[in-house]
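Researcher: Final request for today, and then I'll write up notes for the group meeting. The sequence and the SMILES for flavin-adenine dinucleotide follow.
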Amino acid sequence: MLQRQLFSCSKASMRAISRPMMASSLKSAFTQRSISTSSLIYQEVKKTEPIVKSNPVPTPPIAKTTPKKKGAGFWRWTFRITMLSTIAGWSALTYLVWKETNPADQLPQTELKPNGNKRKKIVIVGSGWGAMSFLQKLDTTQYNVVIVSPRNYFLFTPLLPSVPTGTIDQKSICDPVRLIARQTPGEVQYMEAAVTDIDPEAKKVYIEHKSDRLTIGDAFINDGEPIRAELDYDYLIYSVGAKVNTFGIQGIPEYASYLKEAQDAVAVRQKLFNSVEAARLLPEGSDERKRLMTFVVCGGGPTGVELAAEVKDYIVQDLSKFIPNLEKEMNVTLIEALPNVLNMFHHKLIEYTQQVFNSQGVHLRTNTMVKKVDARNVYCTEKKADGTTEDHVIPYGTLVWAGGNAQRKITTDLAAKIPEQTSRRGLLVDEYQKLYGVEDVYALVVQA
Ligand SMILES: Cc1cc2nc3c(=O)[nH]c(=O)nc-3n(C[C@H](O)[C@H](O)[C@H](O)COP(=O)(O)OP(=O)(O)OC[C@H]3O[C@@H](n4cnc5c(N)ncnc54)[C@H](O)[C@@H]3O)c2cc1C
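Model: Predicted protein-flavin-adenine dinucleotide complex:
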C-alpha cells in the first residue's frame, strides 16, 4: 500500500513537472507539492507502523547554574541600604559642620530700618531654655537683639544626670551662646555679664562682669572690682531661671554638691570617684569604707530620682566590670521628706519608680526630713506611720542636694519694685507672659 501510494505520488509529481509552467511557479508548486507529499507519507507511516523507540539522542547536559542562596537578595539590599545611609549620614553631618563653621552673613544692627522707622532693641536676660527658645522664634532682622548672661553657653539639662557617671560628656550638652547667636539671620550681640538691677521705669538694665580667678597671679583679676555697664531696652525678656533652694539647712552649702549647672555635675563625678578609690584602700567591712561607698541624694524630685538611678545603673552595669564586687559594697540612698518620690507626677509613675528602686537596690527613705549635714553625715528625722518620729544619722561619701529651687535675688528685687507683683512664689504674668504692672517686660519660665 505504501509502495502504491509512493508510486502514485511520484507519478503525479512527474505529471506536474511535465506541465508547461513558468519556471518560478513550477518551482513553487513543486515545493508545495513535495511538502504536502512528505506530510502525507509521514501521516501514513504514523498510521501503519508502530513507533519504534530508538536509542534517544543524548541531550546535551544543561549548564549547571549556581542555585540562588535563600536570603541573598535581602542581604544584598541590606548592604546597599546601609552603605547609602552611611554615605547620606556622613554627607549631612559634614554639611551641618560646614554650615556651623561657615555661617551666612547676618543683617547688621542699625538704628533705623530701611523704611526710616526706629529698629527696636530687645534685651534678653539669661541663656537657658526660656531665653534660647525665644531667640529661635524671633525674627532677628526686625530688632536689635542683645543677650546678657553670665553663662556663655546653653545647657541641655535633661541629660545633666548622665554627666556624673561619664555616660555623657559635659561638652556634649553645652552649646555656646555665640554660636547660637551667629546662626540667626539678623545680628545678635552677646554680653557675658549678670544683670544686677532693672529699672522698668527708665527701661534700663545694669550689668556686671566678674572674671573667675584662673590661677594665682593672674594678670587680669577683676573679682574685687567687677566691670559694670548699663543697657537701654525697648523690650526686656526676663529669663534668669531659678537658684537652688537649700531651705537654710545647716551644712548644705559647705558639704553638698548640686546638680544644676555643668560644673556641678563634674564636681559630683570627681567626688564619686575619689570616694570609691579612697574606700578601696581601707579594710573590707570597715565603717569608713562603708561610709565612703555611700552615695546619698537628698530630694525625690525628677533630678534626684534620675541621678540616683543613673549612679546605681552605672555601678552595676559598668563600674563593677572594672572593680569586682563594687555593686555589693556601694550603697545608693535617696532621701525624700514627703511620703513619695516624684510627687507632682501620676501615681502610676510613682509606684513604678518605687518598684524599680526596690528591685535595683536603691535605698529609698521617704517621710524623712534632712535637718543638718556635716562633712561625713546626714542628720535626718523620719516620720513614722503612727505619727512618731525617729532620728537617723546616715554617713556618706558623696552627697548631692536636689531639694528644690528658689527665686533669684534679682527676681525678688524686681518684684519688690512693682506694686502689682503680689505673689511670693514668683513673678506674675498675663497670658502674653507680660509682667503685671510694667510695660514691655516679659518673663519666661517662671514659677507660678
Ligand atoms: C538635672 C536637671 C534635669 C532636668 N530635666 C528636665 C527635663 O527632662 N524636662 C524638663 O522639662 N525640664 C527639666 N529640667 C528643668 C529645666 O532645666 C528648667 O525648667 C529650665 O532650665 C528653666 O529654664 P529657664 O530659662 O527659666 O532657666 P535656666 O535654664 O536655668 O536659665 C537661666 C539662665 O539665666 C542666667 N542667669 C542667672 N542669673 C542671671 C542674671 N542675674 N543676669 C543674667 N542672666 C542670669 C543663667 O546663667 C542661665 O543662663 C531639668 C533641670 C535639671 C537641673
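Model: The first strand starts at residue 121 and ends at 125. Residues 125-131, 148-151, 157-158, 160-161, 194-195, 239-241, 259-260, 302-303, 408, 410, 445 surround flavin-adenine dinucleotide (CB under 6 Å).
Researcher: Thanks, that's everything.
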